[in-house]
Design goal:
Distance between the termini: 57 Å
Structural class: alpha+beta
Organism: Proteobacteria bacterium 228
InterPro entries: DUF2282_membr (IPR018740)
Number of helices: 1
Order of helices and strands: HEE
Pfam families: DUF2282
Keywords: Signal
Protein name: DUF2282 domain-containing protein
Radius of gyration: 18 Å
Protein backbone atom coordinates (compact mmCIF):
# COMPACT_ATOMS: atom_id res chain seq x y z
CA UNK A 1 0.00 0.00 0.00
CA UNK A 2 1.30 3.44 -0.88
CA UNK A 3 2.09 5.85 1.92
CA UNK A 4 -0.33 8.43 0.49
CA UNK A 5 -3.18 5.88 0.54
CA UNK A 6 -2.36 4.94 4.11
CA UNK A 7 -2.33 8.59 5.14
CA UNK A 8 -5.69 9.24 3.47
CA UNK A 9 -7.27 6.18 5.09
CA UNK A 10 -5.91 7.21 8.49
CA UNK A 11 -7.38 10.70 8.09
CA UNK A 12 -10.81 9.29 7.19
CA UNK A 13 -10.68 6.88 10.14
CA UNK A 14 -9.84 9.77 12.46
CA UNK A 15 -12.75 11.85 11.20
CA UNK A 16 -15.15 8.94 11.66
CA UNK A 17 -13.90 8.35 15.19
CA UNK A 18 -14.37 12.02 16.08
CA UNK A 19 -17.92 12.08 14.72
CA UNK A 20 -18.82 9.05 16.81
CA UNK A 21 -17.67 10.66 20.06
CA UNK A 22 -20.36 11.00 22.70
CA UNK A 23 -21.31 14.52 23.71
CA UNK A 24 -22.74 15.54 27.06
CA UNK A 25 -26.20 17.10 26.90
CA UNK A 26 -26.96 20.47 28.47
CA UNK A 27 -29.11 18.73 31.10
CA UNK A 28 -26.01 16.87 32.31
CA UNK A 29 -23.92 20.05 32.73
CA UNK A 30 -23.67 22.93 35.19
CA UNK A 31 -22.47 26.49 34.62
CA UNK A 32 -19.47 26.61 36.94
CA UNK A 33 -18.36 30.16 37.75
CA UNK A 34 -14.80 30.96 38.78
CA UNK A 35 -12.99 27.97 37.27
CA UNK A 36 -12.37 29.03 33.65
CA UNK A 37 -8.83 29.93 32.70
CA UNK A 38 -8.20 33.06 30.60
CA UNK A 39 -9.55 32.55 27.10
CA UNK A 40 -11.30 29.29 28.01
CA UNK A 41 -14.71 30.52 29.21
CA UNK A 42 -17.88 29.16 27.58
CA UNK A 43 -20.08 32.24 27.13
CA UNK A 44 -20.35 36.03 27.10
CA UNK A 45 -20.56 38.17 30.25
CA UNK A 46 -21.03 41.85 31.03
CA UNK A 47 -17.27 42.35 30.46
CA UNK A 48 -17.03 40.72 26.99
CA UNK A 49 -19.24 39.57 24.15
CA UNK A 50 -18.10 36.05 23.35
CA UNK A 51 -16.88 32.69 24.58
CA UNK A 52 -13.12 32.51 24.87
CA UNK A 53 -12.70 36.23 25.56
CA UNK A 54 -12.02 36.14 29.30
CA UNK A 55 -8.80 37.92 30.21
CA UNK A 56 -7.97 36.50 33.63
CA UNK A 57 -7.89 33.08 35.22
CA UNK A 58 -10.76 32.03 37.50
CA UNK A 59 -12.78 35.23 37.07
CA UNK A 60 -15.95 34.77 39.20
CA UNK A 61 -18.02 36.37 36.39
CA UNK A 62 -16.95 33.80 33.75
CA UNK A 63 -18.21 30.25 33.62
CA UNK A 64 -17.23 26.93 32.12
CA UNK A 65 -19.68 24.11 31.46
CA UNK A 66 -18.76 21.09 33.59
CA UNK A 67 -20.33 17.72 34.36
CA UNK A 68 -23.25 18.07 36.76
CA UNK A 69 -22.17 17.76 40.39
CA UNK A 70 -18.46 18.50 39.86
CA UNK A 71 -18.33 22.31 40.04
CA UNK A 72 -17.90 22.83 43.77
CA UNK A 73 -15.25 20.11 44.03
CA UNK A 74 -13.27 22.11 41.43
CA UNK A 75 -13.49 25.23 43.61
CA UNK A 76 -16.23 26.88 41.55
CA UNK A 77 -19.64 28.35 42.30
CA UNK A 78 -23.02 27.52 40.77
CA UNK A 79 -24.50 31.03 41.32
Amino acid sequence: MKASNLLAMSAVAGLLAMSAATTVSAAEQDKCFGVAMAGKNDCATAQHACAGHSTKDKDPMDFKLVAKGTCESMGGMLK
